Each structure stands twice: as C-alpha cells, then as structure tokens.
Amino acid sequence: MKFTGTAPQKAITRYKVVGTNVPRVDIPEKAAGQYTHMQHVRLPGMLHGRVVRPRGQRAYGAGAKPMEIDDASLNDIPARIVRKGDFIGVVAENEWDAIRGSRALKVTWQETSALPGNGDLFTRMRAAKTSDVTIVNWGDAEKALARAAHVSTATYYCPYQSHAPFGPNCAIGDVGSDGALVISSTQDIYNSRDMLAEVLGLPVNKVRVQYVEGSGTYGRSCYEDAAQAAAVMSQAVGSQWRVQFMRSDEHGWDDYGPAHLADVRAAIDANGKIVAYEYHGWQHGWMINETTHELVLNTPPKERTTGAGSIPVNA
Known about the structure:
The chain has 2 domains: 38-113 and 168-250, Aldehyde Oxidoreductase, domain 4; 121-162 and 256-314, no CATH class. 22% of the residues lie in helices and 28% in strands. The chain has helices at 27-31, 95-104, 121-127, 141-146, 189-200, 223-237, 247-253, 291-297, and strands at 47-51, 66-70, 80-84, 87-92, 106-109, 136-137, 150-158, 170-176, 179-184, 207-211, 240-244, 260-268, 274-283, 286-287, 303-304, 309-314. The strands form 4 sheets. It has a 7-stranded mixed sheet with strand order 3-4-1-11-8-9-10, sandwiched between helices.
C-alpha cells in the first residue's frame, strides 16, 4: 500500500461529535471518590509485590546492577525475593509484608557516577550537536517579520519533569503456562502487549492486556513499567500478583518528560492579524523501553530520536 499524504480532510459539516456537548458519565463517580481506578482493582486471592531499586536519582543508564543480595535480611518478614536478570522484587501474601520486605531487603548496588545536574542544562542543549528536522516551512517568515506592525520574541525553558500521577502506577499480572493476562492503565495496549511478550519470552498471541484507567496519568508515566514488573513476578512465582509502585519508585525511576528549549518569534499586522510565526526548539528523544525491560533483559536504554534537534517552524 502506498501512502501519498493527500487524503481529503473531513468536511466540518459532517462533524457529529466535535463542537457538541458530550456528557462525561464518569465525572460524578470521580468527583464523589467512587470511581474504580487501576489502583482500586482487587481480584480474589491475588497476592502483592513491590519492586526493589536504588533510592533517588543517579546515572543508572546501564541499569541498576545488584552486586550482592542479603537473603537473611527478610528472615523476619513473610516475603519472598524474585530476581530475573537484574530485576529484583519482593512478593508476599499480605501487601504490608511486601512493602516491609522491599524496604528491609539489603542490596549492594554497583556504584554509578552522579548526574551532571541542571545548572547549565540549557546552555549545554544549545551548544550540543543536533540532528535538525524541519517540521513545517510555509512562506517567508523573515519578510513577514520585517514588514509586521508588531513583533514579539521570547525564549522558553522547560526542565525535566516527572509525570507524578495522583496515584503511583499499579498493575496486575496473571501469567500461566498457556499465556498471560495483564491488567494495567497502559495508553497503548498493542505496544504494551509486544513489550510484555518480549520480557516474558512468550509469543505475542499468548499475551492479553486489559485496560483500566489509572488515577491521573500525564504523559508516559510508569504504567508499562508496573505492568512488566507484575508480569515478571507472576511468571516467577505463579498466581495473580498486584504490583503497586511506591511514590519513591515513581520519582526515582520515571522516564521524566524531556527538557526543552525554544526560541519563538511571532508577528501581527496593523489589524492584529498574525502574519508570521517562527519556532526553533531543542529537545532530545525519549526512552521507549521500561526500567523492568532493561533490568530483566540486561538491555541499555533505547531512545526514540525522531523529532530531536533544532526544529524551525516558519509561517
């Protein structure tokens, strides 16, 4: 099939939903605190797990590698250690025991270098070698800016930002000999299924993903990471395992939203009509695999590079 990019736009007169008042039937329950989010889902007989990772934010680009695990540190807690590759988790019948176990387990992690910090972040971004991509280039912006009645110029700085959902991400994994069911708040079920199949070593057609809305996910937070962790724990131990991330897991291991730097110019004519808009942005790509994936399979972070670099947009 050949894609020409010339498909006609849908006529506004054919719109049936856009511009109408569509009832949000979910709002009353959410406003009353009665809505069932992923974090509220409970299944009969399910068990509980927590991931175990270094606290804080360090340069774990090659993965958090455990050098030594002290099994005896869990002697007083009815919990079990799950390890696959460099992935470590703690599972228990009681959720509080899983939490206690994840906190008590003594792990010696490979030392890593500290992150460079954000003090001169935007200077470094501007000075770095870029792969330039032009998204749109219409007309002659320089001529339009030169004859405009008013020109406004600004530079915008956006730091790395955690997705910080209302409730740390959660998922339930049920992996058996015939396949896997994973319940999560993924925003891309088919991609989620592909990643789960790779982590579990199963054919894609043996993996089923069921969506339940999470309690406040902005952008690409740790919903896939939690789903993979739940699946790995279920495959290792059997049964249905609910993995709830702790707040420190989210803050320390979230794929933060990339930092961004933008130089913008816009202009209007004497009648207030926009006659020119010019945008140059610097950003890098974002990670397209999850921490659990990296730890289980000992693979380095994989970055999506499309759209990275200096991006001029002229009108």
